[in-house]
TrEMBL record:
Transmembrane segments: 94-115, 162-183, 195-212, 218-237, 257-275, 281-302
Keyword Ribonucleoprotein: no
Alphabetically ordered keywords of this record: Membrane, Transmembrane, Transmembrane helix
Protein name, entry field: Stage II sporulation protein M
One Pfam family, short name: SpoIIM
C-alpha cells in the first residue's frame, strides 16, 4: 500500500483518537491500534513523517494512562456500575435489532399456529403437546413445572439456559447467521407455546405463571442474541478498522455483556424451580415479580447505560 493511501485510509480514525474519552477500554483500544499502525509504518515507510505523527499520538495516550493510573480496590463495583453499562450503551442499536428479531419470530410462531393447528405439534413435538393437553384436561395445565425436585430442576434449568445463551452468542462468529437462527428457533417455540394456552382460554393465566421466570429468561436470550450480532456486525462492517481489530473490540464488549447474564439466568432458574411451580399463588404476587423483572431489565440495559454515558461525557 502506498503511503498516501495508508494515510488517507486511517487519518479520520487517528483524528478521532485525539478527542478526549474517559472510557479505559476505548483508550486501550486506541493505543493498541496505534501500535499496530506504527509497526506497519516503520516496516513500509521507515523514513516517513507518518511514523513521528503516529508515535506522538501513541506516546500521549501512553502517558495519559500511566499519569492518572490508580489501583482500584473496587474494580468489581466499577465493572457493574460503569464498564458494563458503557459497553451496553455502545451497542444499544444492536440490542434493539435483537429484540425486534425475537419479537418478530414470536409473532411468526403465533400466526403460524393460528393458521395451522398441526404446526404446534411440529414445533413442540407430539409427546409434549399430549402431556400438556392431558394436564389441561386434568385441571392442572402447568403441572410440568411441578414434576421434579426443586433443587434438581433449578440446577438443570440454570445450566440449560446458560448453555443456550452462550451458543446463541458464539454462533455470532458465523457473521451473525447462527445467532439469528437460534433467535428464530427460540422465538418460534415461545410463540407456539403461548398460542397453545391462549387457544385453550388460558392465555392470561399462562402469562402470570410462565413469565414469573420467563421475563428474565427471554430477556437474557435477547441480550445474548445482541452479543452474537455484535460479533457478526464487527465481521461484516469493520468500518476503518481491520476485521480482526473490529472483532477484538466487539468481543471485549460482548463478553462483558455475556458475563452480566449469568446471575440473571441463575435468578430465572430459581424462579422456575422454586416459584413457578406454585401456580395458585396470588395474582398480585405474580404480577409483582413479572413487573419487577421487566423493570430491572429495562432500567439496567436501557435507561441506566444512557445515564452513565451522559455522566461520563460530562466529566471528560
Amino acid at each position: 500500500m502506498r503511503e498516501g493511501q495508508f494515510i488517507k485510509r486511517n487519518l479520520d480514525r487517528w483524528r478521532s483518537y485525539q478527542e478526549p474519552t474517559d472510557d479505559p477500554d476505548e483508550i486501550a483500544r486506541h493505543f493498541t491500534y496505534l501500535v499496530d499502525d506504527l509497526s506497519y509504518a516503520k516496516t513500509f515507510y521507515p523514513k516517513s513523517n507518518t511514523i513521528r505523527y503516529i508515535n506522538s499520538m501513541a506516546a500521549n495516550i501512553y502517558l495519559s494512562i500511566y499519569k492518572n493510573k490508580k489501583e482500584k480496590s473496587n474494580r468489581f463495583v466499577t465493572f457493574w456500575t460503569t464498564e458494563l453499562p458503557l459497553a451496553v450503551r455502545r451497542n444499544h442499536r444492536i440490542l434493539l435489532y435483537a429484540f425486534l428479531f425475537f419479537l418478530s419470530f414470536i409473532l411468526i410462531g403465533v400466526f403460524s399456529a393460528y393458521l395451522d393447528q398441526t404446526f404446534v405439534r411440529a414445533v413442540l413435538g407430539d409427546s409434549y403437546v399430549d402431556m400438556t393437553e392431558q394436564n389441561i384436561a386434568n385441571g392442572h395445565p402447568f403441572n410440568v413445572y411441578a414434576g421434579e425436585n426443586e433443587f434438581v430442576m433449578f440446577l438443570y434449568i440454570a445450566f440449560n439456559n446458560i448453555r443456550v445463551a452462550f451458543l446463541t452468542y458464539f454462533f455470532g462468529i458465523t457473521a451473525g447467521l447462527g445467532t439469528v437462527y437460534l433467535l428464530f428457533k427460540n422465538g418460534l417455540m415461545v410463540g407456539v407455546f403461548e398460542y397453545m394456552f391462549f387457544h385453550h382460554n388460558l392465555g392470561f393465566r399462562s402469562v402470570l405463571v410462565i413469565f414469573v421466570h420467563g421475563t428474565l429468561e427471554l430477556s437474557s436470550i435477547v441480550i445474548a442474541g445482541a452479543g452474537g450480532l455484535m460479533l457478526g456486525n464487527a465481521m461484516l462492517f469493520p468500518k476503518t478498522y481491520t476485521r480482526m481489530q473490529s472483532l477484538k473490540a466487539a468481543a471485549k464488549d460482548s463478553v462483558k455483556i455475556m458475563i452480566s447474564l449469568i446471575p440473571i439466568f441463575i435468578v430465572a432458574a430459581f424462579f422456575e424451580g422454586f416459584v413457578t411451580r406454585h401456580t395458585d399463588m396470588p395474582v398480585w404476587l405474580s404480577l409483582a415479580i413479572l413487573i419487577l423483572s421487566a423493570s430491572f431489565i429495562t432500567w439496567y440495559y436501557v435507561i441506566y447505560p444512557i445515564k452513565v454515558s451522559k455522566r461520563n461525557a460530562q466529566t471528560v
